[in-house]
Amino acid sequence: MLLNIKNLHVSIDGKEIIKGLNFSVNKGEIHAIMGPNGTGKSTLAAAITGREGYEITQGEIIFKGQVINDWSPDKRANEGVFLSFQYPIEIPGVSMTNFMRTALNARREYRKLPPVSAGDFLRKMEEKKKLVDIQSKLTNRSVNEGFSGGEKKKNEIFQMAMLEPELAILDETDSGLDIDALKVVANGVNQLKSGENAFIVITHYQRLLEYIVPDFVHVMYDGRIVKSGGKGLALELEERGYEWIKEQFDD
Amino acid sequence: MRDEKKNKDVLEEVTTGEYKYGFVTDIESDQAAKGLTEDTVRFISKKKNEPEWLLEFRLKAYRHWLTLEEPDWALLHHPPIDYQDIIYYSAPRPKKELENLDEIDPELLDTFNKLGISLEEQKRLSGVAVDAVIDSVSVKTTFQDTLAKHDIIFCSISDAVKNHPDLVKKYLGTVVPYTDNYFAALNSAVFSDGSFCYIPKGVRCPIELSTYFRINAANTGQFERTLLIADEGAYVSYLEGCTAPMRDENQLHAAIVEIVTYDDAEVKYSTVQNWYPGSKEGKGGIYNFVTKRGLCKGRNSKISWTQVETGSAITWKYPSCILLGDNSVGEFYSVAVTNNYQQADTGTKMIHIGKNTKSTIISKGISAGRSNNSYRGLVRVSKNADNARNYSQCDSLLLGDKCGAHTFPYIKTGNDTAIVEHEATTSKISDDQLFYCQQRGIDKEKAIGLIVNGYAKQVLNKLPMEFAVEAQKLLAITLEGSVG
Ligand SMILES: Nc1ncnc2c1ncn2[C@@H]1O[C@H](COP(=O)(O)OP(=O)(O)O)[C@@H](O)[C@H]1O
Ligand SMILES: [Mg+2]
């Protein structure tokens, strides 16, 4: 089992947002998490990646057999957890190239490997840029600065391709993307997918799931996973909306 | 909120970095007695076998200094400086004429190696000529042959007094007269060494020129003086670096730099200032009171100041340009970092006198710990300076909430055709930025270094290549702490 979450409770500023969530992911699987706005999907992603301020009050997050509740975000990242941000952050004056090289070398240092050579690094950049159809000029610019919404999302997938995580969480990577960009993102995921890694795709829409076919679909509501199923569940949600789920659980 | 609070704690740790250049070199030195009197001035002058006119210059400066009061307008707080408790002259011993590197005291060479400065042949590869000043005396100027081929004079100011007295006499004190301010008067009375450089007409200096200053002896002040002349059509890029050992008491550094450029000449003057900033608790550190000024005397001449200020307990420094020649250009690019209990009050003055003169000011302040960081700048356009233009951008970055950032821009225009623009921003490193970096595997400390370097990039880009790398590391080190 790659990721195993047991009875997870997460609070922000003393307010409980995740309220006893159970969830597990095996290598080679793609899981979709759907659910209305404000039900804690991003909070779950933040808890798995170790963001400060997201306090785990109960339960365990187990990654590759180890409880990671207390690990720093960078340790989790270097162990192979990646988050494609719902809202990617701008870092003025830091070029994408420099940022990626720093990140890659941090990972290598963590694994006690020497820094990547300039040649190998540039070759890898070229290869992965093609994968997500990203333009060269983007990697010369500062991290996410002046990028369009679509470019930012593609840039997240590009970083994922560069860092080759074992567990990738895509938080609404599809929101605001046109169909072409959506295909690029999906194509990136499909090419990176292997028997050795797994994806958690957080989305509102079944649309993305036409291109990234999930093995499991989960519905999150009010801080819990309230329903799980196969691909068909996504279609049902698309047709019926979330109201019936809310009605079922609100009382 | 919790998120912010935790980050604050880490920022605090990260920003209480320790100084890494604080070793003391065990060199015997030849010193003046503590304190400052006319006799001290005469002692220094005699030690240096100076001509009568220079002794006169020093004595006039000294007598003027006695009539002045220390300035108190800067946003700096420090206990009163006891000028009688300072040693005004200290020379490493043995001091004799040095022909080549082999004759330099090995301890001294070791000092430079620790500083990462090699006076040896490897510098030839990076194409940098170095003058090194320890305490008060210039110990070695490399690269004389290459420079001589172009008739460039680059030597210690003491040697210049000996070998080129007419040039020194013609320019010394013309850009920064001893009457300029308290510290300028003090320096003019007791300056010990420094660099002198003259680039003749039409010569582009083929290598970077560089001076390293180091205060070593205890209780000594350092008062160096640099004079740089670029004749018509000449060009030179000049870099100064400095460090000092860790000592519990404060040490005074009061330097003067004067630059003169003639028609079509250009001087790029870069500084990486890394004097000992004091301990985490604010004990010790260098008091850095410096007067730097360039005179764009000729038409189309240009003076560009770039400074990366990471050290000193106190920095009081306003590298300025007097734009006298028509079409002359003045630039000031600055990164000033203050951490722990450091205080910096720094900026520039751009004085537009000639027509069509242009100036640019880019100032990036970074405050951390309990430090205070002020930008103080003056843009003055005089009556006849038609079509003068200035653009100023002053940004402040705060790390944590116990530090201060202040901006004091003064604008005085006496000519309606002037266009003066001023922009200012204040920002913080956001939790979002830190988390984004960490999620990519970059730890918090490295992330801060990365973000700060990004913020300062516009200025760092102005430094000569080799020094930009050095400066980047220095920024990261200055803000580095004990985070595991
Ligand atoms: N940083 C925060 N501070 C306070 N409340 C937050 C914060 N982040 C999220 N929340 C709250 O947590 C709940 C879940 O939000 P989120 O995880 O973003 O939902 P989703 O991603 O499913 O739309 C919402 O009520 C939201 O207002
Ligand atoms: Mg969300």
Please provide a written account of the structure.
The complex is a heterodimer of chains A (251) and B (484). With 251 residues, chain A is of the alpha/beta class. Chain A has helices at residues 41-49, 73-79, 96-110, 118-131, 136-140, 149-163, 179-192, 231-240, 243-250; strands at residues 3-12, 15-25, 30-34, 54-63, 66-67, 81-84, 91-95, 142-143, 167-171, 198-202, 216-221, 224-229. Chain A has a 6-stranded mixed β-sheet, with helices on both faces. In chain A, a hairpin with a 2-residue loop joins strand 11 and strand 12. In chain A, helix 2 (73-79) packs across helix 3 and helix 6 packs parallel to helix 7 (179-192). The mean pLDDT of chain A is 92. Helices cover 25% and strands 34% of the residues of chain B. In chain B, strand 3 (128-134) and strand 4 form a beta hairpin. In chain B, strands 5, 6, 8, 10, 11, 13, 15, 16, 18, 20 and 22 form an 11-stranded mixed β-sheet that branches. In chain B, strands 4-3-7-9-12-14-17-19-21-23 form a 10-stranded mixed β-sheet. Chain B starts with a helix and ends in a 6-residue tail after the last helix. In chain B, helix 2 runs antiparallel to helix 3 (52-66) and helix 10 crosses helix 11. Mean pLDDT of chain B is 82; it is low at 1-17, 94-101 and 117-127. Classes of the chains: A alpha/beta (251), B alpha/beta (484). The A-B interface holds A 12-13, 49-53, 55, 72-74, 77-78, 82-83, 85, 88-94, 98-99, 102-103, 106-107, 110, 142-143, 159, 163 and B 1-4, 6-7, 430-433, 435-444, 446, 450-451, 453-458. Magnesium ion binds at residues 41-42, 86, 171-172 of chain A.
Helices and strands, with pairings:
The complex is a heterodimer of chains A (251) and B (484).
Chain A: E1 3-12, E2 15-25, E3 30-34, H1 41-49, E4 54-63, E5 66-67, H2 73-79, E6 81-84, E7 91-95, H3 96-110, H4 118-131, H5 136-140, E8 142-143, H6 149-163, E9 167-171, H7 179-192, E10 198-202, E11 216-221, E12 224-229, H8 231-240, H9 243-250
Parallel strand pairs in A: 3-10, 3-11, 6-9, 9-10
Antiparallel strand pairs in A: 1-2, 1-4, 4-5, 7-8, 11-12
Chain B: H1 2-14, E1 29-31, H2 38-47, H3 52-66, E2 90-92, H4 106-114, H5 122-126, E3 128-134, E4 137-141, H6 144-149, E5 153-156, H7 157-163, H8 165-171, H9 182-190, E6 195-199, E7 208-214, E8 225-230, E9 235-243, E10 250-253, E11 256-261, E12 266-274, E13 285-296, E14 302-309, E15 314-317, E16 320-323, E17 329-338, E18 343-352, E19 358-367, E20 372-381, E21 389-398, E22 404-413, E23 419-428, H10 431-439, H11 444-455, H12 457-460, H13 465-478
Parallel strand pairs in B: 3-7, 6-8, 7-9, 8-11, 9-12, 10-13, 11-13, 12-14, 13-15, 13-16, 14-17, 15-18, 16-18, 17-19, 18-20, 19-21, 20-22, 21-23
Antiparallel strand pairs in B: 1-2, 3-4, 5-6
Magnesium ion (MG) is lined by residues 41-42, 86, 171-172 of chain A.
